[in-house]
Amino acid sequence: MSIIPSFFGRRSYDPFSLDLWDPFDGFPFNSLATANRNSETAAFANTQIDWKETPEAHVFKADLPGLKKEEVKVEVEEGKVLQISGERSKESEEKNDKWHRIERSSGKFLRRFRLPENSKVEEVKAAMENGVLTVTVPKQEVKKPDVKGIEISG
Q: What average pLDDT does range 124-133 have in this prediction?
């Protein structure tokens, strides 16, 4: 380990660490550490969801590790919009705790998807297993129009 001199005292430096050195650490304005914390919360707030269409249904999958099914809400608004929301609470801090790293995200998330016209919204099913939420929206069979052949005279 080498020592990096600083205007604010001496600071140790580990060249193999994944930590970013923040030269403004300790200043009262928005530092890199604060920006990292905000981006972690934003990462959870912008939960990414996969949407695939099969011949029978539209299937939505979201990785929500650490959440219980009671902490997640799946709703269909106005018969057209699928809404998936929830919240992961921040871990409580004790007075004597000294945190070295905070990487797990916390906060609220909300995602909305406009469902296609062929969706059977009254038959939507949701399941949560091993931190993965799966929402299945069955599709209505597309009725093929009756085609009547017309004989051409002449």
A: 95
